[in-house]
Amino acid sequence: MARNNDLGLGTGLWLRVATWLSVAFLFLPIPILIIFSFNASRQVTHWEGFSLKWYAVAFADRALWTGVQNSLIIAAVSTLLATVLGTAAALALSKYTFRGRVLFQNLIYIPIILPEIIFGLSLLALFILIRMPLGFTSVICAHVTFSLSFVALIVLARLHQFDRRLEEASLDLGANRLQTLRYVILPVIAPGIVSGAMFAFTLSLDDFVSTLFTAGANSTTLPLRIYSLVKYGVTPELNAISTLLILVTLAALLAGHYLQRRAVSQRLVLGLGGGTAALVAVLLIVSIALADDRHTLNVYNYAGYFPDSILADFEKETGIRINYSYFNDNEELLSRLSLGACDYDLVVPSDYMVRTMIKLKLLARINRESLANYANLDERFTRMEFDPTGEYYIPYTYGCTGLLYNRELTQPPVDSWRVLWDERYKGRILMLDDMRECFGLAFRLLGGSLTDRDPRMLQDALALLRKQKPLVLRYDSNTVDSILLSREAYLAPYWSGGGLRLTKDHPEFEFAIPREGVPMFVDTFCIPRDARHKENAERLIDFMLRPDIAARCMEELLYPMPNTQAPALLPEDIHALLQPMLTLDLKKLQLVGELGEFNKDVDRAWTELRSR
Amino acid sequence: MLELINVTRKYGDVVAVNDVSLTVAKGEFFCLLGSSGCGKTTILRMVAGFEKRTSGQIILNGRDMGDDPPYCRDVNTVFQNYALFPHMTVFENVAYGLRIRKCNTAEIGTRVMEALGQVRLSGFEERRPDQLSGGQQQRVALARALVNRPSILLLDEPLSALDKKIAEQTRLELTELQRRVGITFIYVTHNQTEALALADRVAVMHNGVIEQCGPPGEIYEHPKTRFVADFIGSMNFLDGQVTTATDRGCRLRLAERWDVEIDKASPVAPGNRVLYCLRPEQLRLSLLPARDFENSVPGVLRRKVFEGDATLYLLELANGQMVTVSQNNYIARLARDFYELNQEYLLLWSRTSGEIIRA
Question: Is the pTM of this model over 0.80?
């Protein structure tokens, strides 16, 4: 059989197999992702039957839709700006010789070559230096800077094919330079401009890194939202969102293809695209102008850590509009807050971070007299060691690391961390992929604490963990539920929130507090020193301390709150579930403190453990 | 009508056009001929306005237009690769100039159709350029320029991208078209056949200067410089020295051994070193001297090159120089002439043939 383009890659079968393997490797994850979006279970890889409930969850996720909305606004505006500027840059580079042209041409490449993280950092530094508040404008600026380069390069490539004589022909026929640009150059390079614009749009839509650095209190985009969801373990909601995104993208592609097939004029397509972008830009400006700044509250928290329904009730009750943006760990919160350009009114740091922030003078004193529900708080939590005055924080929730295990696959008693060294469970033990959890556990078994910062004990702890390593199935923090549900592993140290959620849905699981004691955390409400809506923040705190609201919070999050009135209002099953947490002996718990320089030693030991 | 006075164009130290002066009359078909890099296209582009002159004057209809931008000049160009707008139909391409000048729609319609009729493209209005053959594209380019009724039409190698057959056919049409519309054509080409066939006058350019300017016959028959003699057609050059000279003719001693007579008045004096130029078709081969071909020089036949209508014979003279003779095959066959390689023959020519150029 004759083949037109045999590149010497061999014949039929082998080539076909290699091709199909590559295709499968590239695209198989997508059907898998789509299939599991219909999973009834909250586990990502454990099939429990068909259900559309994750689509319902995704559709009801207010923060998600805010993210979609923000992403679209940012993408539309930045695409418009980047396309105009990028095309202008490309025209200048290809048509004119001017002083510094070569330099300019090379500068265009920089946002493409430079690692995005450096780019994001430098933009952030610039915005802070010029005191530009982080928000829509800063994100759009960031997106324009890098997508401009892509537009310019794509248009430049098109211009390289552009026959200069077309331009001369137009001038020759009596058109001046502007008319030539309008009637000849732009129409001929229009396909380049359109693909540049589409490229800019996609780049902006899925940009994560530079958005992370430049987003402010009200400009959380879809990728930021999705990433923050991962924090709580990957749930099928993400699959549902992704499936919807794939559908939208496919629809857009098909529409584009259809428009091309039907030879709808480029002018129409350009007009439609440009018009839409312009409309969005106008809407954005109007919405910014109309937003009443006094009635807003900028919350910076983990995603979903304030239940959506409660925030909605608060907004309805007070008329205050909440902008919710996310961080993924305390360190991110600290770095953002110390930059001081973010305009946050309420943040939720953990215990040790409160101490650091007080030391760095980042927090404001909370006006406790204004909180009518302050009296509901459990007094053991109001003046904890990280802030003995209790002036800078209000406790929100607490939790601990306990032992999650499958009753049907283990033999009682499971009440000690030592069970994780039990040969009987070889290959069935799952450990958190978290150095502080692992070493904290080993230190506790050795009778010490990580916060003692004892280097000799670190060596013993490393030896202990090394001894355990052959028994360990895997180190993983993100899919603990799925691995336990699939019965690959029988037991694992796990955080109380996730552990209790699993036991709620699957009665064969049990969440135990081992007798050696467990590490504990307390998450708190804090108000940044520069907060512009301090009263609004205090109103939300007070709202969350109301017994009925606190009970709803606890039910939704399955994290206990130190509220003396709320437990009585909990439904019976939830109360039973939370009972061990509500009756915790605080003396058995230990707040995880700061490690300072010792952190590096632990890190080294952790790397050593994981690498061998 | 169009006058170039001492026009010079320099690119840094490189002189592309060196102090050129020429005049083109109204309705004339004027041709700039030369090999690539001779400056002919630069002149065209300076007239069109795409290039700035370094010095000199470019006068159209009595006004120096040297500094006008291209869109203010009453000239239109047909580009080498036609430069049709790929995003427009044939109609829109041709209408472009009129649209820019804000003609009303009805007038645009009639004039575009008229122009398309002139280039025999009626019925092609809605095609796009990429749906046309090279020849058709070329005619669209022509119509697009003609429709504006410019004072001068500039044509930059318009036939060079076409097949030989189509180029020859289009050549004929182009002359007819020019006679019909009466617009002045300035035509740039490197192809001497085209230039000789088309033009009323030809300017042969070399190294940025015009070597010779005149009607095609004069250029061919009486080249004034060695470059022109060599560039137009083929030519044998023989070195010689004038021995005697009168107002009716002169005697030359060629290669310091052969004396020949020439019946042609030339501004030479005895002792001058000259080049004697003979075209291959002016020469004959023979075993014996002939009566009406007074001059003869012996040579040995070294090669024969069959060219269809004629055969080229390459003779080596006693001084080692090769001379080319062209003989019509039809006539040669009638005479049953037969020449053998490495045989000595006489090279014959008439006293009235050949040109003398000062060395």
Answer: no
